[in-house]
UniProtKB/TrEMBL annotation:
<dbReference type="GO" id="GO:0030245">
    <property type="term" value="P:cellulose catabolic process"/>
</dbReference>
<dbReference type="InterPro" id="IPR001360">
    <property type="entry name" value="Glyco_hydro_1"/>
</dbReference>
<feature type="binding site">
    <location>
        <position position="121"/>
    </location>
    <ligand>
        <name>substrate</name>
    </ligand>
</feature>
<feature type="active site" description="Proton donor">
    <location>
        <position position="166"/>
    </location>
</feature>
<comment type="similarity">
    <text>Belongs to the glycosyl hydrolase 1 family.</text>
</comment>
<dbReference type="GO" id="GO:0005829">
    <property type="term" value="C:cytosol"/>
</dbReference>
<keyword id="KW-0378">Hydrolase</keyword>
<feature type="active site" description="Nucleophile">
    <location>
        <position position="349"/>
    </location>
</feature>
<dbReference type="InterPro" id="IPR033132">
    <property type="entry name" value="GH_1_N_CS"/>
</dbReference>
<feature type="binding site">
    <location>
        <position position="289"/>
    </location>
    <ligand>
        <name>substrate</name>
    </ligand>
</feature>
<feature type="binding site">
    <location>
        <begin position="403"/>
        <end position="404"/>
    </location>
    <ligand>
        <name>substrate</name>
    </ligand>
</feature>
<protein>
    <recommendedName>
        <fullName>Beta-glucosidase</fullName>
        <ecNumber>3.2.1.21</ecNumber>
    </recommendedName>
</protein>
<keyword id="KW-0624">Polysaccharide degradation</keyword>
<dbReference type="GO" id="GO:0008422">
    <property type="term" value="F:beta-glucosidase activity"/>
</dbReference>
<keyword id="KW-0119">Carbohydrate metabolism</keyword>
<feature type="binding site">
    <location>
        <position position="165"/>
    </location>
    <ligand>
        <name>substrate</name>
    </ligand>
</feature>
<dbReference type="Pfam" id="PF00232">
    <property type="entry name" value="Glyco_hydro_1"/>
</dbReference>
Length: 440
């Protein structure tokens, strides 16, 4: 099988997040997070599922590290659970929490794999949410304190640091439309949470630098915005949605500015924080899954846009259109828009879910996932040929895991997880990725 070719020093990895795989939510001093609260709230999660056990990674991380060593990946993007380190989000760190990540990071390093640590993948300590969460500017400063604790403890071993995972999703899905924790429905009044997360990114980057961190970047999710029709009003809606979903999180970090449209929705004095947010970065991490369709707002719609599905493409079981060329388009547009302000890029997440299950032969055959990865890697290669400086790629995800409000039905892993027995079964895509990563 001919694979797309990449430079020998290209960094191959896999990604996960703490809340989606660890389980052990009440063990070793971990405090409750907004997602523990959300999963315990009726009607919020499909089939009433929760992540108390998830993939039980907290107890089975050695087995999972052995799987990554088998894959031959050069890096593992994981997240640390803020409520495991600071159960209420402030104050003295929980030594058992630090000890867990000490052991995990040591064993990842011992397997010859570079740890890439995301400090925050949406599991805000509930105590901070009770004080307003990301609506409260103080949370950004608490986050910087948390970052300093991690930097001090792990900067000697961690290769790549990512303060926040997808602040856009936290703001829009968590505070804007209530689909994710903490479940607020504030629409555009959620935008102060975007600013406070951007501020947290800047303050945490300063704290990590002070602790001697090697390489710091982002993991922002981005989508090319595709107009549903040629109407001028749709073009205006496209510009607005691009500002909201993409530029509100890229511009302040890369340029030290916010798109004009967003200014009226930001907290007073936001401009004074831009120099803190606009920290020099070593890389820009992009999570790509799909383009986003848009049209002009209909009658009575309070928003300056209307979301539209992208049609005419094969779909995943998570209702995502499979559009590899969207990745090339996105990266080339970023190169054009940010030019010398865009540091080297890592694809920090890309992946797909299908209803994978062991077949009669005990194997898990997932040809659609192999096609998905192959297609997106070819599109990535094209973007690199067009001049985008891409240094690495992380598959979402190593393991099947808890897919937020959709629970366990969407399976994104290269490794199948039987949630009854916690048995791990590498899928065909695991073998495919192994060959690619090992240049076999
Ligand atoms: O991008 C995200 O939404 C998150 O970073 C992951 O936690 C998701 O599980 C994954 O993307 C699949 O939807």
């Amino acid at each position: 099988m001919n694979y797309p070719t990449f430079p020998p020093e290209f960094l191959w990895g896999v990604s996960t997040s703490a809340f989606q795989i660890e389980g052990a939510t009440a063990e070793a001093g971990r405090g409750p997070s907004i997602w523990d609260t959300f999963t315990a709230t009726d009607g919020k999660i499909a089939r009433g599922e929760d992540a108390k056990v998830a993939a039980d990674h907290y107890h089975r991380y050695s087995e999972d590290i052995a799987l990554m060593a088998e894959l031959g990946v050069g890096a593992y993007r994981m997240s640390t659970a803020w409520p495991r380190i600071q159960p209420t989000g402030t104050g003295k760190p929980n030594s058992d929490g630090l000890a867990f990540y000490d052991k995990l990071i040591d064993d990842v390093c011992a397997a010859g794999i570079a740890p890439a640590v995301t400090l925050y993948h949406w599991d805000t300590p509930q105590a901070l949410e009770d004080d307003g969460g990301w609506l409260n500017r103080d949370t950004a400063h608490h986050f910087a304190e948390y970052a300093a604790i991690l930097g001090e403890r792990f900067a000697d071993r961690v290769k790549l640091w990512i303060p926040l995972n997808e602040p856009m999703v936290m703001s829009i899905y968590g505070y804007g439309i209530g689909e994710y924790a903490p479940g607020r429905f504030l629409l555009l009044d959620a935008l102060p949470t975007a600013h406070h997360q951007n501020l947290a990114h800047g303050l945490a980057t300063q704290a990590l630098r002070a602790a001697g961190a090697e390489s710091i970047g982002t993991a922002n999710n981005h989508s090319p915005i595709w107009p549903a029709d040629e109407d001028d009003k749709t073009e205006a809606a496209k510009t607005w949605l691009d500002a909201l979903l993409n530029r509100t999180f890229a511009d302040p970090v890369l340029l030290g500015t916010y798109p004009e449209q967003i200014h009226p929705h930001l907290p007073e004095g936001f401009a004074d924080d831009l120099s803190t947010i606009h920290q020099p970065l070593d890389f820009y991490g992009v999570n790509y899954y799909e383009p986003q369709g848009v049209a002009a707002p209909g009658e009575g719609n309070p928003l300056p846009f209307e979301l539209r599905p992208v049609e005419g493409y094969p779909m995943t079981t998570n209702d995502s259109p499979i559009v590899p060329q969207g990745l090339r388009e996105l990266l080339v547009s970023f190169q054009d828009r940010y030019r010398e302000h865009l540091p080297p890029v890592y694809i920090t997440e890309n992946g797909c879910s299908f209803a994978d299950a062991p077949a009669a032969d005990g194997q898990v055959h997932d040809p659609e996932r192999i096609d998905f990865l192959d297609g997106h890697l070819r599109a990535l290669r094209e973007a690199m040929n067009a001049g985008v400086d891409v240094r690495g790629y992380f598959v979402w995800s190593l393991l099947d895991n808890f897919e937020w409000s959709k629970g366990y039905a969407p399976r994104f892993g290269l490794v199948h997880v039987d949630y009854e027995t916690q048995r791990r079964t590498p899928k065909d895509s695991f073998a495919w990725y192994r060959k690619l990563v090992r240049h076999e």
